[in-house]
Design brief:
This protein is an alpha+beta fold. It has 3 domains: 41 residues; 125 residues, OB fold (Dihydrolipoamide Acetyltransferase, E2P) (Beta Barrel), CATH 2.40.50; 60 residues, DNA Methylphosphotriester Repair Domain. Helices cover 44% and strands 21% of the residues. The strands form 3 sheets. It has a 5-stranded mixed barrel with strand order 1-2-3-6-5. A 4-stranded mixed β-sheet has the order 11-9-10-12. Helix 1 runs antiparallel to helix 2 and helix 4 packs parallel to helix 5. It is elongated.
Length: 259
């Protein structure tokens, strides 16, 4: 666009110079040459600036974090307003649907030329650039919400698109896309677990000395071949098992209700 404007300006100036008969030929040629030099220098500087502004996605860290190449430097960019399930957090295990979100971002962004739009804060406490990532006319932050790969996570003062993001998440949730479909499955599993709890079922592992409610997050990690079921906490404890700290309060409460 800028190059086209420069070309039009050049043409107008040249026509203007040619339409000045009072100028001597040598002076006219000198002015035309000067205008051409100025325009060529402007075009060159504009091209250099465009080359510097090119941002390429060098690597996708996870669903909402990327590494980009800007001129001769590399920067990490955190997509703001959203949060995808963790896959590489140093203090957390991989979360459900994290790999799918990461794979989607890799497929769409890796090697692509993008544009970054900043909000109020430029960087987070880890030094990452906080940005809305534009892939052509598509805002990728919003795409992750629409496709169900991310949840809304806006934090003041970076709330420029909060209404737009809220609408995108609502659409994905109502359509049961991505992690929202997974959430529905977890609700069904939890419901089944509650039915087992009402029957007085408690779950232990052959590789552990703890027993759990079927709905406990640790119970869900026990492989079927290692499962040991009990009718009551007393039965579990008589077999040498101890209540899980995560759900032991609920275990005791259920036991009292049964009695």
């Amino acid at each position: 666009m800028e190059q086209t404007l420069y070309a039009v300006l050049c043409a107008v100036l040249l026509l203007g110079l040619f339409s000045m008969p009072f100028l001597k030929p040598r002076k006219r040629i000198g002015l035309i040459t000067l205008v051409l030099i100025i325009v060529l220098i402007s075009l060159f500087l504009s091209a250099c600036q465009e080359e510097q502004d090119v941002i390429i996605v060098n690597r996708v860290v996870d669903g909402d974090t990327i590494e980009v190449k800007m001129a001769e430097t590399k920067e990490k960019v955190r997509l703001i307003g959203i949060d995808t399930p963790e896959t590489v957090h140093p203090e957390k295990d991989e979360e459900p649907y994290g790999k799918e979100a990461s794979d989607f971002s890799k497929e769409r962004l890796k090697g692509q030329e993008i544009r970054l739009e900043l909000d109020v804060e430029e960087r987070d406490r880890y030094g990452r650039i906080l940005a809305y990532v534009w892939l052509g006319d598509e805002m990728f932050n919003e795409t992750l919400l629409l496709e169900g790969y991310a949840r809304l996570a806006t934090f003041p003062p970076n709330v420029k698109y909060v209404e737009r993001f809220t609408a995108a998440q609502k659409e994905a949730r109502e359509s049961k896309r991505g992690l929202w479909a997974l959430e529905l499955e977890e609700d069904e599993i939890s419901s089944e677990g509650n039915q087992e709890m009402e029957q007085g079922k408690y779950l232990g592992s052959r590789n552990s000395d703890k027993y759990h409610l079927p709905t406990c997050k640790w119970a869900k990690t026990i492989k079927e071949k290692n499962q040991v079921w009990f009718e009551s906490p007393e039965e579990a404890e008589a077999a040498g098992y101890k209540p899980c700290k995560n759900c032991c309060g609920l275990c005791k409460e259920v036991s009292r209700v049964e009695k």
